[in-house]
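Notes from the pairing session

We agreed to fold both candidates in a single pass and log them together. This is the raw record for the first candidate, unedited. Please don't reformat it; downstream parsing expects exactly this layout.

Candidate A
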Amino acid sequence: MSESNLKSMSDLVSLSKRRGFIFQSSEVYGGLQSCWDYGPLGVELKNNLKERWWKAMTFRDDVVGVDASIFMHPTVWKASGHVDGFNDPMIDCKNCKERYREDKIDPSQPCQKCGAKDSFTEARDFNLMFNTQMGPVEDDKSKVYLRPETAQGIFVNFLNVQTTMRKKLPFGIAQIGKAFRNEISPGNFIFRTREFEQMEMQYFLKPGTQKEAMEQWKEIRWNWHLENGLRPDKLRWHPHEGNELAHYADAATDIEYEFPHGFDEMEGIHSRTDFDLKQHQEFSGKKLEYLDTQDNNKKYIPYVVETSVGCDRCLLALMSDAYRLEFEGDKEKERTVLKFDPKLAPIKVAVLPLMKKLEEPAKKLFAEVQKHYRAEYDLAGSIGKRYRRQDEIGTPFCLTVDFDTLEDQAVTVRDRDSMSQERISLDNVVNYLNDKLKF
């Protein structure tokens, strides 16, 4: 049997809607550009991904978690540089009014949408932050922002966390949360959106030790993606050099994945120096220094190594990587399958009674399996079509209840990837799944 990988993002968009992973937001009203809703299977996949990240990052003695508010004091964003410097250069086509980021196109070329030549406006800066008001009166004092990143919620809580948890350097603070950016040109499905979720960790350390720490976290984060099932030939490093390097960083590199539109950023590992804590100390007037009792009670502002992965981008990489079209030359034997690593699959096992007359033992089995794993019960259509449905959503195992079950108290287990089948006893089903799905 031969197979092919995902060739076009449109194939994944189609499958996502057809099988309940991701829907266009507000679709009944024509949709809202670059906004997406996670359906029943999508939210399970996303929750599995977030749980994997949270355990990997915080089930260790040197990292703790927080969940900071989306709304923060507006001076936070002045101190971080977002108010004055979080801009993209924007140009418009004077003919069709299409808007572009200047750094993503060649202004000397015709408009990509309408083909008009020499039709672009002069570039102007566009701040990516969404702003709104807090309170009943709309004036400058009530202006607040939807956070464009989760990192600042960690930085302003550094001292609170360090003192209450009695943490010694080095230690990290992790957070999963929504962020919002008024992107000029979002696209590529859920790759670049205006509302997205970040999984970030800021690792605070003694100045001068950041290089070693960055190398350690690069290895940890690379291996995590491999453990999730991403193929190593689809991943690469992209170090930041020259103008790419942010003003607050002394080193940075991205983990890129080869999406259908090409290699693009999925996660960043950055050495942010002491920029953020120093800025918040200056703007707030509050000391954010660390008292190093292990080094003659020296006081200093810690340096930071950041790991920041886009949850939605990581999920998109997982779906892109898992997508396979398998065929044997016969059109009827083609199958689309999502070969998720079982620990991430939204549905772990499906119970399929061969006929309606077998519902009683099938439902009893389903109730038992559901105590342990996210499961699905499916009676509609031929057994072949039901197998194909489970293949498309990435279910690792199907349990088929047939008439022999009434006699031998056993069921047929079908493996998603090999499509091989074996017979196991009903009283051994949970143990069998525990062995196959051990994480």
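Candidate B (folded immediately after A)
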Amino acid sequence: MIPRDLAPRLTEAARKWPSITLTGPRQSGKTTLCRAIFPQLPYVSLEDLDNRSYALEDPRDFLAQFSQGAVLDEIQKAPDLLSYLQGIIDADPSAGRWILTGSQNLSLLDSVSQSLAGRTAVFHLLPLTRGEIDRFPDPPQTLDEALLTGSYPRVFDANLDAEDWFRSYTAMYIERDVRTIGNVSDLMAFQRFAALCAGRTSQLLNYSSIAGDCGISQPTAKAWLGILETGFLVFRLSTSRGSLRKRLVKMPKLHFHDSGLVCWLLGITTPEQLRSHPLRGAIFESWVVSEIVKHKANQGGAFELSFYRDRNGAEADVVIERPEGTVIVEAKSAATASSSLFDSSRRVRKHLASRPGSCPTMVVYGGDQLQRRGDDLLVPWRELHQNLP
């Protein structure tokens, strides 16, 4: 296992909190990370039917087995355990005893907030950042290979074919989790819906359009998108706030956490096919936004993320708002360095000039040369993780 960027924060939290809750998509490495950081604690997977039955039928006796605490994997399979853990933690609030993991974001966090508020530190382990991927012996070297391969640890750990892995991953997710999370009966329609969402990555989220193309109602489209969010497959990026609010587009943007999954859902299977695909720029934009989201999840930075688009056509893919100032980020998949790559972000900077602190712009592009142009930075895609604030 390679070192994960989130590990130091988990270790530090275990010195202060009686429990830690770690969520994230399936196969993001939660189990591997927790077992590596907390080897002294017993490990129990509630995916195992025997363990789950025991936990559901006699939660008190189940938890009594672990006098010194435990790693309880896929805790959302037995959510009532959290109520019993509350009493155990109140009786003995020693730090680092209980490590809870789960792969269902919204449902798990709702249960945690009801039962363990103030008793657990919550973290999200998302798929690998580019910096983490570089720790493997043979990471993808070109942008198209990187986008196509995605960022799930298993692909790199076992040197698997990404196309085969995503086929299995999607089948497992749809056949297993979708039934559990949303009680979806028409799996073929849901699979079509997921592919339509992939075709809209980096676009404004329009439920009516997706519903119409999929042949489902708008409420169903909202519910199904919630399922994808709950499984940490997609996320919404909100529009920027500010004094120009009335002029801003208010719909959020839809993004996927993993570019490889987007490519698989769209039927893109080779770097050559991706290179000429009309959605290559959109896929790259989602990759950049996801890298920033992962960086925030791993480092715990005190900053907010949004995008900017007004009705006059000014647009920035990401606005990073920090206490010391704002950073505007643009994703450009072109490989050639050019001053024109800064045109859009500099236009947005004029609109945000009234905000406190400096407002530099960063353009992440498909080339290889790092360039500083005054306060602005042109960043090669493979070096984004080294230049994030």
